[in-house]
Design brief:
elongated; two-stranded antiparallel sheet; 2 strands; 79% helix; binds protoporphyrin IX containing FE; 6 helices; single chain
Length: 149
């Protein structure tokens, strides 16, 4: 039971970090990115990726060492809905990461990056959809934790 509580704590802390990174990305990303802002955006994006990996490990650990047993989750459609949402968010986070790498080479001599309008609108939409889908993951978790299936 203590192990379960500790794993739940780790899962929560990592998720808070993940949500923080997603929102930081939403706030840092602009059509005009001064060098310092762009550098921070890339750092946040890297941390977002690493935390997502850590959340997967903490989630799997919760499942494996849960008093409910892993089979309980693996046979729960709400668990799979949660996983699908997580995978969808992860896939939607790939184009922005590639975009940040690409626009780096377009930086002006002072390091400022100006993002093309169409790319900017597309990336902003991808970030917004990530936020919306992400919001439903804890709903699935809360339902699952309370025995819904
Ligand atoms: C591969 C990724 C993940 C796996 C395998 C996973 C797995 C789990 C497991 C097994 C539980 C315990 C549920 C129970 O006791 O019935 C849990 C709880 C929880 N998970 Fe995840 N999780 C993952 C990702 C996420 C993400 C991205 C979020 C983001 C919001 C999240 C939010 C939560 C919350 C809020 C709880 C606690 C629910 C409650 O006690 O009311 N999980 N997760």
């Amino acid at each position: 039971m203590l192990l379960d509580a500790i794993l739940a704590w780790v899962h929560f802390v990592l998720i808070f970090g993940l949500v923080g990174c997603l929102f930081a990305e939403v706030f840092f990303y602009r059509d005009v990115l001064p060098a310092a802002t762009f550098a921070r955006l890339r750092q946040v994006d890297a941390a977002y990726g690493m935390l997502a990996g850590a959340v997967v490990f903490s989630g799997i650990a919760r499942m494996v060492w849960s008093p409910k047993t892993a089979a309980y989750f693996l046979h729960n459609p709400i668990f799979w809905t949660k996983m699908s949402l997580f995978v969808a968010v992860a896939l939607l986070s790939i184009p922005p990461t590639i975009h940040y790498v690409r626009i780096r080479s377009t930086a002006q001599p002072d390091g400022t990056v100006r993002v093309e309008r169409s790319a900017y609108v597309k990336m902003r939409a991808l970030l917004t959809v990530q936020v919306v889908l992400f919001a439903f993951i804890p709903l699935c978790a809360a339902l699952m934790a309370r025995g819904f299936r």
